[in-house]
Amino acid sequence: MVMINHWALHHDPRYWKDVEKFDPTRYLDGNGKLGMKPESWLPFSAGRRVCLGETVAKPELHLIFATILQRFKITLPEGTNQKVELGGSGNITIPAPYKIIVKERNLI
User: Which residues are involved in binding heme (predicted)?
Assistant: First the structure.
């Protein structure tokens, strides 16, 4: 059995700047548009075992996050460190407990 070490692939400093920093803008080009798929990025695996739902998941995630951001204002409590700490054990990495403030937006 061969398994891809996604953590090492997605934390390789040869391909990623500031590997421990959460930075969604790293996927954008100079014009703020979604750039080319980085060489060291395989969230849906690869080869014959690639996730069949990738073509559905990507646009669906876009709609989910757009809807959340449209309906809610998400902020940090005052004095909160903006750095996302990671926790978990073994092969699973999860965000450490993190506090946010979610307020419903007034939609008219």
Answer: 51
